[in-house]
Design a protein that fits this description.
about 110 residues; alpha+beta; four-stranded antiparallel β-sheet; three-stranded antiparallel β-sheet; 3 helices
Length: about 110
Amino acid sequence: FPSHDIRVGNYIEIEQYNHIRNIVRICSGSEIDQVIKLRHTPIPLTPEILGKCGFVSNPYQDRYELGDIYVNYCGIRNICWIENVPHIEYLHQLQNYVYINTNKELTFKP
C-alpha cells in the first residue's frame, strides 16, 4: 500500500529479516521511510481488531460502535466498512479517519 497513506501513530504489520511478522506503531516520520523499505502490509479490519480499538459489538445492527463512529460488519463476506466513507478496510485507514474527524488518536492494543 502507498506510503502516503501512513502517518505517525499508525499501526502496520512488517515482516522482519527472520520472516517473523510483527505489528508495529510508526513513531516518527523517519520510521515511515524505514518501513517502506521493509515488506509491510496493512492490517485488515476484523471484529478482533475493532475490539482491540475499543469498539463494542452491536449485534442488533451488525455493527461495532465507538462513540459516534459506527463500523458495519458483514460476517458472510468478513468485511468491515463505514457507511458513506469510501475505502476504509484497514486499521491505519480507520486510525486516520478517526483522527481527522475527532482530532484524537484511536487507541489500539495489539
